[in-house]
Design a protein that fits this description.
This protein has 238 residues and is α+β, with helices and mostly antiparallel strands. Helix content is 55%, strand content 11%. A 4-stranded antiparallel sheet has the order 1-2-4-3. The longest helix is centred in the middle third of the chain and has 21 residues, at 98-118. InterPro entries: DUF6904.
């Protein structure tokens, strides 16, 4: 079963599951976000979601964390059925920064809408429930780390028809780096505010986007291709 849990320092979220859980999620992401350049104005958002997909794929291959999880098999059950088997399953996991994961949950709303439009019977699609569960798990994990009143506001923001068309994805980097630079306590206190900034696209985002556009227009580059002067630390204290 796919699970999400905030890391000890609240730097990000640990996404866990067995091989089939992670592979199913990865396959669903690939299907829903479509082919490269399929949706105009969404190349940058697609790249960010693929970054998470990359981590999930490597986790499923055993390249990240390996955990042993109790599988519900008790000693009396083995005696009853006359066999001996391990009482733990192998789970794989990877960590993703909180702002990065929240943005993916927001951006997937647009991709889900496009995907549903292309399907004659989207209600019976096997990939959409996987994506919906992924988004729900992000919010459920978030709920455990923000005050109830603030979480209700975040939920309302997530339900608004805000599009990430031509989104300045560098803003996610800005929030990631700002978040990494905080103390554990500061992260706990600012998590709801960051979630709102990603869900609503406030004045700070608008100002930032205009700055990126000003750099993109003279060179006739798409907004997502503008690089920012910032580097991630080689190692994170999750």
């Amino acid at each position: 079963m796919l699970t999400m849990k905030s890391t000890p320092n609240h730097t990000g979220v640990k996404i866990s599951g067995d091989y089939f859980d992670l592979d199913e999620l990865n396959q669903a992401i690939y299907r829903v976000i479509g082919q490269e350049d399929q949706y105009y104005g969404y190349a940058g958002s697609r790249m960010r979601i693929l970054g998470i997909s990359y981590e999930i794929r490597h986790a499923a291959q055993g390249d990240r964390n390996v955990d042993f999880v109790f599988n519900g098999l008790h000693e009396h059950t083995m005696k009853q059925h006359g066999f001996i088997a391990p009482d733990k399953n192998i789970y794989f996991s990877t960590e993703v920064l909180w702002p990065e994961l929240i943005y993916a949950a927001v951006a997937l709303k647009d991709f889900v809408k496009f995907y549903q439009q292309d399907k004659k019977f989207p209600l019976w699609d096997v990939h959409l429930p996987v994506i919906f569960r992924f988004q729900s798990l992000v919010l459920d994990c978030l709920q455990g780390h923000v005050p109830t009143a603030e979480f209700d506001t975040i939920l309302k923001a997530f339900n608004q028809p805000v599009t990430v068309n031509d989104y300045a994805i560098q803003y996610v980097d800005l929030l990631n780096l700002k978040y990494i630079g905080m103390t554990r306590q500061q992260r706990e206190q600012s998590l709801s505010a960051i979630a709102m900034k990603l869900a609503v696209q406030d004045q700070d985002y608008t100002t930032f986007r205009n700055q990126v556009l000003a750099a993109a227009v003279p060179h006739k580059k798409p907004i997502h291709e503008i690089a920012i002067q910032a580097e991630y630390p080689e190692k994170l204290e999750w």
